[in-house]
Amino acid sequence: MEAPVRFPERVRSYDQICAEVEAEKRKSEAHGYDPGRFFRPSLTVDVVIFTVQARDLRVLLVSRGGWPFLGRWALPGGFVKENEGLDEAARRELFEETGVRDVYLEQLHTFGHPGRDPRTRVVTVAYYALVAAENLAPVPGSDASSTDWWSVYQLPELAFDHDLILRRALERLRERIWDSAVASQLMPEKFTLTDLQSTYEVILDRPLDKRNFRKKILSREVVENTGETWMEGRHRPARLYRFRSESCQP
Asked: How far from the centroid of its chain's Cα atoms is residue 57's Cα?
């Protein structure tokens, strides 16, 4: 039997950490510290939000409403506020520019090339989000002139380095798609195994053997038969499945 994985015995909460930081600010030594000694770049967040529609993997883009790259398509995102956490900023920007709330969101990578933004030195923390198509009806926010879904295989010219960010997000999605907590976010509540396989094939961009796919999915016990069926064309009714609730936890 393997030994349990250990963690540090004492891990502080952010409330405790913040209290200690505030105490440090009140010390006499704090008055002699010059924050201008070091270069201070701006910080942004950008979000790659994926869905599967019409047997295609699509990404949500916004048309920029101002300089720089006016009219160019870009990922939803923006500057982090002074007293705001990164996750909080990502969710706020996603809602302000698209009207999207309560989606699966995971931090992806930090992009900090000095030439990536013409305004100033900007470091961005990228996220990716997943949502089933029928649960999303995005609307452009104050920083975007329009919002639309684009196939990841037929993209317009993107602003900044967002094509590099999108590529990294697609690589991560393909790495993690066999994790049921990830795959479940792209499916409706009930689905056939044919629909599920189609979603995997769209994301991986390659065909999968039907027998092997079903064997792998069912053996992992991440989906369960609902007892319901769905008539697909003139074929016999197909069984409807859903992800087990415990398998959808990130």
From this structure: 14
Question: Distance between terminal CA atoms of the chain?
Answer: 25
CATH of domain 42-175: 3.90.79.10
What does the chain come to in residues?
250
230-250: pLDDT as tens digits: 876 667 788 999 999 876 665
**CA angle, corner 241, sides to 235 and 243, nearest 5?**
155
Distance, in Å, from the CA atom of 192 to the CA atom of 238, rounded to the nearest integer, reads 6
Every domain of the chain and the residues it spans: 42-175, 180-248
Helix (H) or strand (E) run with residue 74 in it: strand 73-74
Question: What is the assigned CATH class of domain 180-248?
Answer: mainly alpha
Is the whole model's pTM more than 0.85, yes or no?
A: yes
CA distance 183 to 202: 12
Separation between Cα atoms, residue 17 and residue 205, nearest integer Å: 45
Q: Which amino acid is at 92?
A: R
Instruction: Report whether 63 contacts 146 (CB < 8 A).
Output: yes
Signed CA dihedral, 106, 107, 108, 114: sign only: positive
- Residue 131: band (very low, low, confident or very high) from pLDDT cuts 50, 70, 90: confident
